Amino acid sequence: MQSAATGHIRTLLILSVTARLAAWALVSISAYVLPLFDASPSICIGGTSPSSILLRWDAFHFAHIAREGYVYEHEWAFFNGLPLLMRVSAHMQALVGFGSNDWTTLLRGGAGMAVLCDSTHVLYHLSLHHLRSPSLAFLSAALSIFSSSPTALRLASYNEPFFTYFSYRGMLACARSKWAAASICFALASIFRSNGIFLSGFIPWGMLVTPFLAGRKDLLTPRHILKCVLLTALPLIPFIHHNIIGYLQFCMPPTSHIPNWCTSSLIPLIYSHVQSEYWNVGFLRYWTVSNTPNFILALPALVHIFAFCWFYLSNLPAIVPHIVPQIPSKNTDVTPPPRLDSPFLAPSLLPHVLHALALTLILTFNAHVQISLRLLPSVPLTYWAAARLMLDLPKWGKAWVTWSVLWGALSCVLWAVFLPPA
Predict the structure, then answer these.
(1) Separation of first and last alpha carbons in the chain
(2) CA 163 vs CA 192, 196, 203, 366, 411: distances in Å
(3) Alpha carbons 232 and 145: distance in angstroms, whole number
């Protein structure tokens, strides 16, 4: 198995590099041949340098925060992880005489660091742990090459590469019962995206829920519970810190004008205020006729997750006996539960199913639905579901791969000419 894993990792590395080069080539050619819908990148950078294709959509906000800090209220929708990395990279480039703190240097640095956060091999090891099959682990990781948002995940200075990498790392640490490492990885993921706080749920699931369901209540000592609480709290710190700094900046003297959000809610959160005020985020707010095209674009990614969650949860009665041990009675012996029909019904996948379902519900009903195209790839269940389709429902599996390739290529072209979604 070790030799097979080594070969798989090597092949996945080649595929990942090829996918990055293909995305870069397609975006570069499209940017050169097609006119920009918005000329802002050319104005900020000047000319048509290779780095100008990195400056689209949220990259403007990240680069501006990296240069100037949080100047405008709406910028507080973006966490400081990526701008911090961009500044560090810019300083490193300046030390070797290769740039300064300008747009090009920041964008180039962010994209370069994103390359180092290739998560394909991490997904392979995580899949190997849960699916117990090198071939299925390789298939799942290989399918992740066909991302629904190749520019955000493999090309641009965006949060997604870093968030996905640290999410996968933390999940793998949980699978190996390395709880402190998992907490640190989830905290690092939370520096880049607010939904990193939901990752902390994997820790109490593994440390408390799993032993409780398995009948190992002897493990649930006060010291163990306290350790779990502390490790669960760590990934929440970036979100709390972000909102505290925002509160101190906008709501405390010597501020001349105190915004309404500082006093209008029990817990004033600048992040929630900005998302609601500037991005119109809220329950069913995005459910309008004008947003129908965005729902159509996101539909394959959403249905893909919902379908797998239905498949798994509908088989929960067969899975539960593998999680909760049977208690023998005086007159009967304990019979082992029947073998599960599919490796994709592994009991260890249950927390991943619940996490993916919760996130997909939020994206569907409470967010800009099109961001699911670049956020759901951070959920490994996306690719386990795809591997299951390839194995059990090959026609649907081929349809999913075809959609991923075609949409991924089209999204590169749309990114190049500065058209949504992004």
Answers:
(1) 40
(2) 6, 8, 17, 20, 20
(3) 31
On whether the CB atoms of residues 155 and 27 are closer than 8 A, the answer is: yes
Map tokens 């899949």 to a residue.
127
Nearest to 130 by CA among 347, 315, 355: 347
Residues 6+ apart with CB under 8 A from 96: none
- Under 8 Å CB-to-CB from 117, ≥6 apart: which residues? 161, 162, 164, 165, 166
Write out the chain's pLDDT in tens, 422 residues: 667 788 999 999 999 999 999 999 999 999 889 988 887 877 777 655 677 888 899 999 999 999 999 999 999 999 999 999 999 988 887 777 666 668 888 888 899 899 889 999 999 999 999 999 999 999 999 999 998 899 999 888 899 999 999 999 999 999 999 999 999 999 999 999 999 999 999 999 999 999 998 888 888 899 999 999 999 999 999 999 999 999 999 988 776 788 889 888 888 999 999 999 999 899 999 999 999 999 999 999 999 999 999 999 999 999 988 888 766 655 555 667 778 889 999 999 999 999 999 999 999 999 999 999 999 988 999 999 999 999 999 999 999 999 999 999 999 999 999 998 86
Residue 38: which region, alpha, beta or left (left: phi > 0; alpha: psi -120 to 50)?
A: beta
Instruction: Give the residue extent of every domain in the chain.
Output: 2-239+285-310+344-416
Q: Are 155 and 54 in contact (CB under 8 A)?
A: yes
3-state helix, strand, coil in the chain (%, to 5): 75, 0, 25
CB-CB contact of 309 with 357 (8 Å):
yes
